[in-house]
Amino acid sequence: MPTDLDDLTLRPAAEPDAEPLAELFWAAREAAYPAMPRSIHTRDEGRHWFREVLGLEPRTIPMPAARETWVAERDDALVGYAVVDPEWLDSLYVRPDLTGHGIGSALLELVKGLRPDGFGLWVFETNTRARAFYERHGLHVVRRTDGSDNEEKQPDLEMAWFGVDPVAGVRRRIDELDDRLAAVLTERAALTATAQRLKPVPGHAGRDRGREAEIVDRMARTSARHGDRLGPERLARIMHVVITESLDAAGD
Question: Which DSSP string corresponds to the chain?
């Protein structure tokens, strides 16, 4: 079995690739079990999805208009593929009998070239082999979830490649989070002001330390499900400042 990549071709997927893509996906997911949960979709649903991705059928499933599908081909046989969105690597699979031969690395390097400003992807927490593969190629875990938002309902990780200028890429991600944080803090301050008008003892004099402790405890549990980089003590200090400043703002 060849291990070099001299005979590997990377090209955009074409209409005849729909069926081989669906079969490769099915085989890869079956081979990856139990490190990955089995797909909740049937084989026929997978075929239909690829036909929609390649424009062979009207799209009934929401997907980015700029989605690209690239295939890795050897000796006229499809041996891997990557589906790439503007800011996400939707999926990357290699034929099960050819994993570890550089095909996945070639596809991932292609994706980096297509998205030089960086991209994110999701990987199941239990898929340690895929996680190690992405880490070797410079991706970082940026978020953990309990899986409640994915189809399989299994814990997963968001990983990111921050682009050819990784510091700038991380800063862009931080800026996006800070913008969201500013909106959340503004909304919280507005609700705090409403609460002060409804409470019999408003302002700092009416602070409920027991409720504040409950808030921190609940936030600590949520943080634990997402990797817990702060811990209860830091969260308590942060929320003390947030509540204090919100109460001050309500009194302005």
Answer: ---SSTTEEEEE--GGGHHHHHHHHHHHHHHHTTTSPPPSS-HHHHHHHHHHHTTSS---S---TT-EEEEEEETTEEEEEEEE-SSBEEEEEE-GGGTTSSHHHHHHHHHHHH-TT-EEEEEETT-HHHHHHHHHTT-EEEEEE-STTSTT---EEEEEE--SSHHHHHHHHHHHHHHHHHHHHHHHHHHHHHHHHHSSS-SGGG--HHHHHHHHHHHHHHHHHTT-SS-HHHHHHHHHHHHHHHHHHHH-
